[in-house]
Specification:
The chain is of the alpha+beta class. The protein has two domains: 2-102, Alpha-Beta Plaits (2-Layer Sandwich); 106-238, Alpha-Beta Plaits. 23% of the residues lie in helices and 29% in strands. It is built from five helices and ten strands. It has helices spanning 26-38, 71-81, 134-142, 192-204, 210-219; strands at residues 2-9, 45-46, 55-64, 86-94, 106-114, 126-127, 146-149, 164-175, 178-185, 234-240. Strands 1, 2, 3, 4, 5, 6, 7, 8, 9 and 10 form a ten-stranded mixed beta sheet that branches. The longest helix has 13 residues, at 26-38. The mean pLDDT is 95.
Length: 247
């Protein structure tokens, strides 16, 4: 039987989602807790990787077992075994051929920036003490919509078949002295969201025109885009699947 786990984590203490040889990761902690609970070695498969310091409100993973699990009991026991910065929100039985990564149809991220210095947001949001034109940034963000090549926003050493992504939404919102960028797509490239945010901020600060932003998109060259913003402001917020995957 195949199960999905819906988990959340604060990424500050981890070297990203994916297993590392010489550093701790979120996947390693989830594997350890699940293996202890199931009393057998298990390795979860995630919907995608998040980099060092990036957080997740919803990361979806799958694992296989021959045991029938009681969701409420499993969630309680796993949360007791996991560190305080990782939680299991839901456990669902899915069809045996469903894959957490390949069957996801939409992923959503948020990038959080606080405009007033706060020690309580140090690892949860990026401090941004600058002026930025939200109208210009949202104008540029609309140019991201649809299926197109986003190589200009991808980390250079990335093993992918193509750089095409279909961005569904891209919008800046001002929320209680916080500037939040919302973006969703069928898939994202490595480092893509942080590079997009950094480039849009260059537009908002008047360092890059809308015309130049269009040229960056067409260039397929990471060197033409803006800097990547810090990891600690980024959140994976939702991973969506077709309803028919659930048993």
């Amino acid at each position: 039987m195949r199960y999905f786990l819906d988990i959340s984590y604060m990424g500050t203490a981890y070297h990203g989602w994916q297993l590392q040889q010489n550093a701790n990761s979120v996947q390693a902690e989830v594997n350890k807790a699940l293996s202890t609970y199931m009393r057998s070695d298990l390795n979860v498969v995630g919907s995608g990787r998040t980099d060092t310091g990036v957080h997740a409100k919803q990361q979806m993973v799958h694992f296989d077992t021959s045991k029938t699990l009681d969701p409420s009991q499993a969630i309680f026991k796993l949360n007791a075994l996991l560190p305080k910065d990782i939680s299991v929100n839901e456990l669902s039985l899915v069809k045996p051929d469903v894959h957490a990564r390949f069957d996801a149809v939409k992923r959503s991220y948020e990038y959080h920036m606080h405009l007033k210095k706060s020690p309580f947001l140090e690892n949860l949001s990026c401090y941004y003490p600058h002026q930025a034109n939200m109208e210009l940034m949202n104008h540029a963000a609309q140019l991201l919509l649809g299926r197109q090549n986003f190589q200009c926003f991808s980390k250079v050493k990335t093993n992918v078949n193509n750089y095409d992504c279909d961005i569904k939404t891209a919008q800046w919102v001002l929320q209680n002295e916080k500037l939040v960028f919302h973006v969703s797509a069928d898939r994202f490239l490595r480092g893509m969201v942080r590079a997009i945010v950094g480039t849009l901020l260059a537009v908002g600060e008047g360092k890059m025109s809308i015309e130049h932003f269009q040229k960056v998109l067409a260039s397929k060259d990471r060197r033409e885009a803006g800097r990547a913003v810090p990891a600690h402001g980024l959140y994976l917020t939702e991973v969506l699947y077709p309803q028919e995957i659930y048993s």
